[in-house]
Design brief:
Layout: H1 2-6, E1 16-21, H2 27-36, E2 40-43, H3 45-53, E3 59-60, H4 61-65, H5 80-87, H6 93-101, E4 109-113, H7 117-122, H8 127-132, H9 137-147, E5 153-155, H10 161-171, H11 176-204, E6 218-222, E7 234-237, E8 249-252, H12 258-271, E9 280-286, E10 289-296, H13 299-309, E11 317-321, H14 327-333, E12 338-343, H15 348-355, E13 361-364, E14 376-381, E15 384-389, E16 401-402, H16 410-423, E17 431-435, E18 438-443, H17 449-466, E19 478-481, H18 488-496, E20 501-504, H19 511-521, E21 524-527
Parallel strand pairs: 1-2, 1-4, 2-3, 4-5, 11-12, 12-13, 19-20, 20-21
Antiparallel strand pairs: 6-7, 8-13, 9-10, 9-11, 14-15, 16-21, 17-18, 17-19
Length: about 525
């Protein structure tokens, strides 16, 4: 339209502002600044009271519309005198005539933030309370004002108040470029809001196949780059209060990179599989794969055993623990160059030890992630998104079945359970050797399960050599496979590496052949019936 293009690039004076916010942070100062600039203020409910209590002149919305608030406040701004004042193309003759005929005054600025739907859901509120916290009038005003940003300034974030006041003070109005950015931000906010509502609805009524899916987040940080220096990257939080990297407090160290966050998430998810009241667990992660995992009665022993699995790959890695880090453990961790430490907590003495490494990031989560919590995992592909439920089950949820003549010993069964939990977090094809509560070799991401078995064994030979142990750490170990063995050759590679027991999902057309090979080798085999591919 010619009227809209006429004001492109122009600064628009603010004569009237409609202020209606749930989050009243900074509103008193914003209203004072607008009033001092000669702006007429119109407001609703609690916002009106706040402005009035600041001794500022302000009109009630009912005075503007000629209608009282009704239906528990559901209907107060849904009125032609509000939306006409927002949507009118000011220099279009028929729009101006309609405004005059119906006594609709222009609204030049709208400050709105929405009912706290996301917080209401997170609080565990009832279905009815959550529905009541779906804002209708707020998003309608935001969208109207944002559409007409050629004339109207829309603000949904209190952080933008100072910039708007500064612009009015310096230029007499709000520049077009700022109105554009505020409009883009406004639509992003309403999109995220509707996304939260639709996601909650789909979960609340068990409707996972809902035809339209949207995912939203709030920008936490723009990073220097992504996986590689030529890629843009940002970190968005989705509002999920589940413990993890997005909710952790960074106590010290450099800003986290894209790869740091990805790897730290992988590490913390793994250790969260282990109940801290039962066992101390440590995971060392490199490039999203575990290079060492161990459980023990104390954290220091667990760390030392995890490090032994692959001390070379641990250099520059991520360390996660499921218990509070003490001074002894911190002293050992800082001996190896480490990018990030993530834990539920750390003693002050441990924090002081870590602080000596100024670039080392320390993240404290306040607790473990709920490994059993449901949720969605999203992956982008060309032209779309792959969406699946989180893999929130592990070997503890399985009905284990011994399929060989030899039964595993109690010690072997404990190690088999550990190996299975670790294998869930290893890129497929995954093979994990475990002995005495610690990984003894890990084969990850190979195209052949035999290759993963050979890789894990080779790593165990290297680790034994580094530890001054003759042979391979895999000798006398148990092994977990994330998926079934399609042929007996994979199992035979494990036997050659020294394995005495194996845990795997089963389900291959050649299960009988694989079981026969295990019996021939005299090893025990347990089937879980649950696969854990991770790509």
């Amino acid at each position: 339209m010619t009227g809209e293009t006429h004001l492109m690039g122009k600064t628009v004076k603010v004569g009237r502002a409609l202020l209606s916010v749930f989050d009243k942070s900074g509103m008193a100062d914003f209203a004072k600044g607008l009033s001092a600039a000669g702006v007429e203020l119109v407001s609703t409910g609690g916002t009106h009271k706040l402005i009035s209590d600041a001794s500022l002149p302000v009109r009630e919305i009912a005075d503007l519309t000629g209608f009282p608030e009704m239906m528990d406040g559901r209907v107060k701004t849904l009125h032609p005198k509000v939306h006409g004042g927002l949507l009118a193309v000011r220099d279009k003759a028929d729009h101006a005539a309609s405004m005059e005929e119906h006594e609709i005054g222009a609204i030049d600025l709208v400050a709105v933030n929405l009912y706290p739907f996301e917080k209401t859901v997170a609080s565990g509120a009832s279905y009815d309370d959550i529905i009541e916290n779906i804002d209708i009038g707020g998003p309608a005003m935001v969208r109207s004002a944002a559409k007409n940003h050629a004339y109207v300034t829309v603000v949904v974030d209190p952080a933008d108040y100072p910039a708007i006041l500064a612009a009015i003070s310096e230029t007499g109005g709000v520049p077009f470029e700022l109105r554009q950015k505020l409009a883009a931000k406004a639509y992003a906010r309403t999109a995220a809001y509707d996304s939260a509502i639709s996601t909650w609805f789909a979960k609340a009524i068990d409707y996972p196949e809902i035809p339209y899916r949207s995912f939203a987040g709030t920008l936490r940080e723009v990073m220097r780059y992504g996986e590689n220096p030529h890629q843009w990257a940002g970190f968005y939080a989705n509002g999920d209060d589940r413990r993890g990297v997005a909710t952790a407090t960074q106590v010290q160290g450099k800003t986290l990179s894209y790869n740091n966050i990805n790897d730290t998430d992988a590490a913390f998810e793994l250790v969260s599989e282990f109940d801290a009241n039962e066992v101390a667990a440590v995971a060392i992660i490199k490039h999203a794969n575990p290079c060492g995992v161990a459980v023990a009665g104390d954290l220091l022993t667990a760390y030392q055993n995890a490090l032994r699995t692959d001390p070379v790959s641990a250099f520059g890695g991520i360390v996660a623990t499921n218990r509070e880090i003490d001074a002894a453990t911190a002293t050992e961790i800082v001996k190896v160059f480490t990018e990030v430490i993530v834990a539920p907590s750390a003693t002050q003495e441990a924090q002081d030890i870590i602080a000596a490494k100024k670039n080392l990031r320390l993240l404290l989560t306040g607790g473990l992630a709920d490994a059993k919590a449901d949720g969605l995992v999203v992956k982008s592909v060309a032209g779309g998104l792959l969406v699946q439920s989180r893999d929130n089950r592990n070997v503890d949820d399985c009905e284990l079945k011994v399929v060989t003549k030899r039964q595993p010993t109690d010690a072997e069964m404990a190690d088999l359970r550990l190996a299975a939990k670790v294998a869930k977090h290893v890129k497929s094809n995954a093979i994990v050797y475990v002995k005495d509560g610690a990984t003894a070799g890990i084969g990850a991401g190979q195209m052949s399960r035999v290759d993963s078995a050979l890789t894990g064994h080779r790593k165990s030979v290297d680790a034994a050599k580094a530890a001054g142990i003759e042979g391979a750490l895999s000798q006398g170990s148990v092994v977990a496979s994330d998926a079934f063995f399609p042929f007996a050759d994979g199992l035979e590679a494990l036997v050659a590496a020294g394995a005495t027991a194996v845990i795997q999902p089963g389900g291959s057309m050649r299960d009988d052949e694989v079981i026969a090979a295990a019996d021939a080798a005299g090893i025990a085999m347990v089937m879980t019936g649950m696969r854990h591919f991770r790509h």
